[in-house]
Amino acid sequence: MLVVDDDERNLLAIETVLEDVGDIVVARSGEEALRHLLKGDFAVILLDVYMPGMDGYETAQIIRSRDQTKRIPIVFLSAVNKETEHLLRGYSMGAVDYVFKPVDPMVLRSKVAVFVDLFAKTREIERKAQQEQELLDANLRANAELLRAEQDLRRAEQRQAAIIESLPIVLYLEPLTCDVRCPTFVSGNFQTITGYPFAEVLQEPTLWGDRLHEEDRERVLRALEERAHTSKLSVEYRWRCANGSYKYFHDQAVLLSDPEGVPLEYAGTLTDVTERRALESQLVHAQKMDAIGKLTGGIAHDFNNLLAAVLGGIGLIERRANLSEEHLKILSMTKRAADQGSELVRRLLAFARQQQLQPTPVDIASLHKEVNDLLSHTLGGLVELDWHLPEDSWCAFADRSQLELALMNLVINARDAMPDGGTITISADTQDIARGNKLNLEPGTYVRLEVADQGTGIPAEIADKVLEPFFTTKPVGKGTGLGLSMVYGFARQSGGTFSIASEGKSGTKATVWLPQTSSIEEDTATSKPPKMVEDRRKLSILLVDDHPEVRETTAALLRELGHDIKEASTGAEALMILAADGQTIDVLLSDYAMPQLSGTDLLVKARQLLPNLPAVLITGYADAEEIKERPTDVAILNKPFNPEDLAATLRNSVQRAEISQEQ
Predict the structure, then answer these.
(1) Cα distance between residue 89 and residue 495, in whole Å
(2) Element holding 395 (H helix, E strand)
(3) pLDDT-based confidence at 625, cuts 50/70/90?
(4) What Cα–Cα distance (Å) separates residue 250 from each residue in 73, 184, 216, 234?
(5) Rounded to an integer, what distance in angstroms lies between the CA atom of residue 645 and that of residue 650?
(6) DSSP-derived secondary structure letter, 621
(7) Which of 410, 525, 391, 506 is nearest to 458 (CA)?
(8) DSSP string covering 529-590, please?
C-alpha cells in the first residue's frame, strides 16, 4: 500500500491502523509518490487531496495517465470539501473512493482490505496462469522434441535402409531346421545381388543348392551341417546368379536365443565379395610377377656375365687361331647359340622391366609398314592382317624397336592360335584414364593398341598364367614362353600396361596401353651427338670388373685392339691405381654391379681425383633407375658386347671428353 500525505501525524495514524493489513510505503508529496510508483507495484494508493506543491488531484491525474499505474485503485483522503462537486472532481481524476478525516479506523481497514485481497487474488491468478503457460510451453517443447526425435529416427532408418540397399550385402533370418536353405526374411537388395526376387526363392526351396558351383557344393553343404553343432557359419563360395554369371559370396550367420537361452533362429549376412576376390587375385598376380621379375633380373645379370666371357673368348679364338673350315663352322655354331642366349636374356630383362629403353614419340600409323615388312614371310598365306588405324596422327611415348617387337610377338601368338588361318585385327585409339582406375595407371591420355584373333582362345584354367615367364602351351622346342611376359614388362616399364582377354573359343584380345605424347620433330642440329672421326690411337685403359673370367676376356680383347690395360677387381683397388698413377689413364672402363662400391659410386670418387676422366659403364643387369643417375657424358655398354662395339664406345667417350674440354 502507498500512503501519500504531507502531515507526519496522519501518516503515523494510518500506518498504525493498517500495519496488519499489508506492507506500507509512505510518501510526503506527490513527487515522492510518483518516484515510488516507478520502482514497484501497489494494491491501493491512499492519497491526500490537499498537499503543498502538487496536490492530490494532479498526482492522481498523472498516475492515471501512465499505462503501468492507471489500474491501481486510488482512495482520496480529505478533511474538507465534502460537497458533491469536489467529490465528482475526485472521481473524475480516477478515485475509487473517499475517506474523510478524522479517519474511522474500522472503515479505513475495511475499505483497504478489499483492495489488498483483490490484489493478492489477482497476483495468484497471474501466477497460476504463468505456471499453466510454462507447463503448456514445456509440453509443446516436449512434443516438438518428440516429433524431432521421431523424424530423426525415421531419417536414420531411411538412411540405414538406403545404405544397406546400396551395399553388396543381404541380411537374412533362417529357422533352426530347414531343407538346405529356407530363409524367412531377407533385406530388400536381395534381387539386386542375385537377380532373383525373394518370392521365387520361397517357391523353389532347392534353388540355392542347385546354383552352387560344383567345386564348392560339398564344402558348403558340410559347413551348413556343422552350423547346427557350432551355432555359427562362415563360408565363401561361388553362386550362379540369374544372368548365368558366378559371384563370390561370403555367407555368415550366428544363432539367436531368447533371454532364457532357448535357440530361436539364425541371423546372417550374405556379402558379395566378387570384386574383393578379383582385387586380391590381381594383387597376388602382381606380387608374383614382381617376385619373378626380381629373380629373372638376377638370373639375367649372371647369365650376361657368362655370355660376355663366352662371346669374348669366341672373339679371341676367331682373331688368334688359324682354324680349319670345319672348326670355324663349329665355332660359328657356338657363337650363334651364345647370341641366341643373349636374345633370351634381353627378353628376360624386358619382362623384369630392367632393360634400357630409349622412348621417343612413335607415330602409330607408321607402324603399319614396318610390322608388315617384318612379318610378311612369317605369317603364311592362311593368315591376314587387318589394320584399323586412326586418320589422325597419334604418338605413343615408347621405345620404337621394343614396340615393334611387342606387336610382332602378339601377332605371332595370334597366328599360332589359328592353325586353320583367319584374320588378325590390329586397331588403335586413344583413351582418357581417370584417377583410381582398375588398370593401375596414372591419370592421363593413353594410346591403346589391340591385337584380336579368331582363334581357339585361352582356357580359363590357364588364363592367370599366360603372363608368367617360361609358361607356354606350345610343344617343346616351339616356344620360350617369354613373348607375352616380354610385352607385359615392356608396357609397364614404358608407363603403360598390358592385358589379355579371352572368351571361351571365340578368340583372344591382347591390349597394350602406352602414354600418348605430341609429335615433336627433334632438332637434328642439337639432338645428334657430334660426329666422331676415326681414331686408332693406343689408349691406357683402367678395367674394373669383379667377375674374373669377364675381366680377363675383356682385357684380352682390348690388348688385341692395341691398348694398354690396367686391371682392378674392386672399386677400392681401382681408386688406389687412380690415386697413384691416374694421370696416365685415358679412360675408365668399369662394371656397374659390383659389391661394396658400384660402378656409379666408383665414378663419383674417381671424378673427385680426376674431374675430366672419360668413363664407360658395363652392365649385364641394366637397373635403369640407378644408372640414370650417372653423368650424361658417361656411356653405357651392355653385356654381352662384341669387340667392335667395345672399341667404338671407348673411342667415342675419349673424343667426347676432348671436345668438351676444348669448348
Answers:
(1) 110
(2) strand 395-398
(3) very low
(4) 87, 19, 12, 7
(5) 9
(6) S
(7) 506
(8) PPPPPP-----EEEEE-S-HHHHHHHHHHHHHTT-EEEEESSHHHHHHHHHHHGGG--EEEE
HSE-CB of 417 using CA atoms within 13 angstroms: 26
In DSSP terms, 446 is beta-bridged to: 431, 515
CA dihedral (298, 303, 304, 306) positive or negative: positive
For the segment 14-46, what is each residue's pLDDT rounded down to a tens digit? 888 898 888 899 999 989 999 998 888 899 999
Average pLDDT over residues 590-619: 86
Cell of 222: 558340410
- What nine digits make up the cell of 49? 487531496
H or E element that contains 37: helix 30-39
Quick: pLDDT tens for 386-415.
888 877 767 888 888 778 878 888 888 888
Alpha carbon dihedral 382, 388, 394, 400, in 10-degree steps, equals: -10
Burial class (CB in 10 A: 0-12, 13-18, 19+), 624: middle
- The SS3 assignment for 425 reads strand
Predicted TM-score of the model (pTM): 0.40
- 3, pLDDT greater than 90: yes
Type of residue found at 402: Q
**Residue 345 identity:** V
Q: Render 139-196 in DSSP notation, one character per residue.
A: HHHHHHHHHHHHHHHHHHHHHHHHHHHHTTEEEEEE-SS-SS---SEE-TTHHHHHSS
Note whether 451 and 410 are within 8 A (CB). Answer: yes
Q: What is the DSSP string of 466-521?
A: TTSTT---SPTTS--S-HHHHHHHHHHHTT-EEEEEE-TTS-EEEEEEEEEE----
Whether residue 640 has a cis bond before it, omega within 30° of 0: yes
Sheet bearing 74-78, strands edge to edge: 25-27, 2-4, 45-48, 74-78, 95-100
Residues 581 and 609: beta-carbon distance below 8 Å: no
Contact 596, 571 (CB under 8 A): yes
Does residue 357 contact residue 302 with C-beta atoms inside 8 Å? no
